[in-house]
Amino acid sequence: MKQELPVCLIVRTYNNNAQFRVEYNLNSIFTQNYSNYMVAIVNDASNDGTDLIIRRYIDFFQIPKERYVYISQKVRKTALENTYDAIMQVCSNDSIVTVVDGDDELVGRTVFQLLNSEHQRLKGGWIYTSYFLHIHQRGLGISQVSKEYDLEQKKAVAFRSIRPTRNYHLRSFPARLFKMVPV
User: N or C: which end of the chain has fewer CB within 10 A?
Assistant: First the structure.
């Protein structure tokens, strides 16, 4: 395996307590088969108990403090403001920044490995993935590029109930590129 570049994952969450969304999100992150990562969880002033769920999850699973930073906003901000603040506070210049929303799940346990491999192959740059297919075979999760949802599926807006899972949209880029943007 290639060298593990540092991954800085930013989770932006707002009112993701319903249907265990935030728990699925955090579980999919903290079970990755990758050791060189840091998570910035930004709770954007949720008012549905998301804050308590995040704190309980971290305590119950004894997530090491050196693995995450939890930012609980008192006043709502824009997604870009939350992303910017997290990158500037948490991500090292040499890290691969990856942004997910609080109701997203990473599909499989090798997402950071795949990002690491692609960033090394491309030697930096921005990567936006849009559609992936997750198939369970013999208990293993396999991620691969998938087709877009058909029109009927889009109209039904039932993406989480469609199997196999396809909704997945990671945005990733080197932190140094983002930090070069003048404010």
Answer: C
